[in-house]
Every structure is written in C-alpha cells, then in structure tokens.
Amino acid sequence: MAYKPRDYYAKRAKEEKYPARSVYKLKEADQKYRLLKPGQAVLDLGAAPGSWSKYALERVGKKGLVVGIDINPVKISHPRFLFLPGDIFELEPEEIRQKTGVEFFDAVLSDMAPKTTGDRSGDHFRSVALAERALFFARKLLKPGGIFLVKVFEGEAFPRFVEEVKKDIGPVKRFRPKSTRASSREIFVLARRKAQKE
Ligand SMILES: C[S@@+](CC[C@H](N)C(=O)[O-])C[C@H]1O[C@@H](n2cnc3c(N)ncnc32)[C@H](O)[C@@H]1O
Fold first, then answer.
1. pLDDT value, residue 118
2. Which residues line ligand 1 (CB under 6 A)?
3. What pLDDT is attached to residue 6?
4. 54 in a domain, yes or no?
5. Cα–Cα dist 121/54, whole Å
6. CB 137 within 8 A of CB 122
7. Domain count of the fold of the chain
8. Does residue 186 lie within any of the structural domains?
C-alpha cells in the first residue's frame, strides 16, 4: 500500500506536534501494558525523527531521562533528553553508560528498522539483526524489572528471536498496534526483565 501522508495517524501526529505517526504505537503499548513511569531512564534505539523520545519525555517527567540513539538526527531540545548519534552496530553499551551516567535503564525501546527494499526476506533478516542488537543492549543495560520493547518484521527467524528474548529477558508478549499499516509485517515483542538476570 502506498504511503498516505494524510492518513488518520499521520494527521493526528501533525496536530499533536509529534514528528512521526509511529508515536501511536508506543502510546498504545504504554496505555495497554503501563510501561513508562515518572522518574524513569529510557533508552530509545532508532529514535529519529523523535516521536517516541518526545512521548517518553512526557511520561518520565522532570526527574526522568530519555537517551535517543540513531544514525539520523533527532531535533529535540529538552533538558531531560540526550541524543547520541551513531550506528547501533558501532556503539557499545559501556560507551552509553559513560556518556549518559546511567548504569541501568528502566526501559530499552527499539523501533529500529532497516531501509525497506521490497525484498521481504532480506528486509526481515536485516530487521532481526537490528532486533538482536537491541536485545544485546537490553541484556547489558536493562534493570531487573525493566521493560524491553522491540520492533521486528515477521518472518522465518522471528520464532527463534522470541525464544532468545524469553531466555534472556523474560516472558514475552507479541503486540501489533492498531496504527500499524495493514500491509506491514511489523510486530512488537515486549518482555519484562526477570529479577535474577544480570
Ligand atoms: C521507524 S524509524 C523510528 C521512528 C521513531 N521511533 C519515532 O517515533 O520518531 C526507524 C529508525 O531506525 C533507525 N536505524 C536503522 N538502522 C539503524 C542503526 N544501525 N543504528 C541506529 N539507528 C538505526 C533509522 O535511522 C530510523 O530513524
């Protein structure tokens, strides 16, 4: 299906001053599963153009912190927002600790997506590679009890990825937001970190 800039969610995002319609995916997950709370530290992987970070900033409030990472720029100027430009495959969790002063995050979110090529299988495997990298960051940086929310394009490697999340983080919920386009194969994997993990 062709991108329709004037669809309901795109229009609503514009009216509500979010840079992208994707904000409604996080908002729906947050309202359904009560993910974000005042005072939390949130790591937002694939943050550009910035709608998830903007929403997270509203939810974590004056005592919270949102750290965004992306190869593309995020134009948010906010005292509780830190942007680290870069490719997630070239950044390391320890570097993020050093640059942010945050040892463990309450939430690791990833809306990262590869540039889609039309090759469904290739797009799927590139998406899983990004999701695996997000899982690696969650393993290192997520607090016990913390939330891991990650986008994946479904395909043959999806069940194995879900098993990894279950093993490394905790029981998994699969979530497909209402605002996801009907033609999209994206799905979100959500897990809360078990208390005994690193
Ligand atoms: C769907 S957009 C994210 C939208 C964002 N959640 C928002 O609400 O504004 C996906 C993002 O993943 C980023 N991305 C893809 N590969 C990446 C990588 N290797 N390292 C960092 N970011 C990456 C893209 O640059 C893009 O901005």
1. 87
2. 19-20, 22-23, 46-52, 69-72, 87-89, 111-113, 130
3. 61
4. yes
5. 32
6. no
7. 1
8. yes
In a domain, 82, yes or no: yes
Question: Three-state DSSP class for 138?
Answer: helix
Q: Would you state the pLDDT for residue 196?
A: 65
* Minimum CA distance residue for ligand 1 atom 7: 51
Closest atom, ligand 1, to C-alpha of 133? 19
On the question of a cis peptide bond just before residue 49, with omega within 30 degrees of 0, the verdict is yes
pTM as predicted: 0.95
Distance (Å) from CA 82 to ligand 1 centroid = 16
Q: Tell me the CA end-to-end span of the chain in Å, nearest whole number.
A: 43
CATH number of the domain where residue 113 is located: 3.40.50.150
pLDDT digits (tens, 9 = 90+) for 126-150: 999 999 999 999 999 999 999 999 9
Does the annotation mark 75 as catalytic? Answer: no
pLDDT reported for residue 1: 47
The catalytically annotated residue of 25, 27, 143, 151 is 151
For residue 196, report the distance from its CA to the centre of ligand 1, in Å.
31
Q: How much distance in Å is there from the Cα of 114 to the middle of ligand 1?
A: 8
User: Which parts of the chain sit beneath pLDDT 70?
Assistant: 1-6, 196-198
Tokens 């939330």 correspond to what residue? 147
CA of 69 to the centre of ligand 1 (A): 8
Q: Give the domain extent around 113.
A: 22-192
Residue ID of nearest Cα to ligand 1 atom 24? 46
3-state secondary structure of 134: helix
pLDDT of residue 198: 45
Residue 128 in domain: yes
